[in-house]
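job 3f2a | input accepted
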Amino acid sequence: MRIAILMTNTDESDFAQAWPKDGEKFTAMMHRVRPDWEYVVYPVKDGAFPDGLEGLDGVLITGSPASVNSGEAWVDRLFALIREIYAAGLPMFGACFGHQAIAKALGGTVQRNPGGWVFGLVEAQYRDGTKLPLYASHVEQVTKMPEGGEVLAEGPDCGVAGFVIADNVMTTQYHPEMEPEFIAALVEHLASELPEDVTEKARSSLTKPADMRGLSERIALFLERS
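job 3f2a | predicted structure (226 res):
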């Protein structure tokens, strides 16, 4: 299968440069479970979009510190592409910003979290009864799903931690691509910018790794079924 990764991460800080880009992270994440698939990265945050959808078997949309409510030109262009992908029936998965962008592009609503930041390791509860430890880093969330959306998972202070639309869309508010070393470094990197209680809660949550493989396998099965 040939999968497009739409990279939306706008962080170009020195901290970000010390780690693999999100295109590499998502490729490594999926290589864990489907090493024979082909992954093609498009840095859409820089205006690099696919010329078309022909030859693609699925699309993954990454996370980003950007807001889907920013009104930036590349974000609006991404919304248009999401609608095109959806209309074509191509399976599409989004994580964090990608989750929110799919929701907003298809008629949903994204707003600031009433409880503020959700950061660190959290437990996502899936509708099939599965509980997955996953990394979180968000201050906005989906508050209204698009038409046809069904809640896939819930999490702390997050009623829509993931949703599906038929066999075409699957999302997560969380970060299946993040490695334990990266999230630990990110907590320290943002410590001077976030409230002290947010940082301390995030630090204390990192007692075990997230189940990256568990969610990666769900993503792969979704793409295959679609």
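job 3f2a | The mean pLDDT is 97.
job 3f2a | closed
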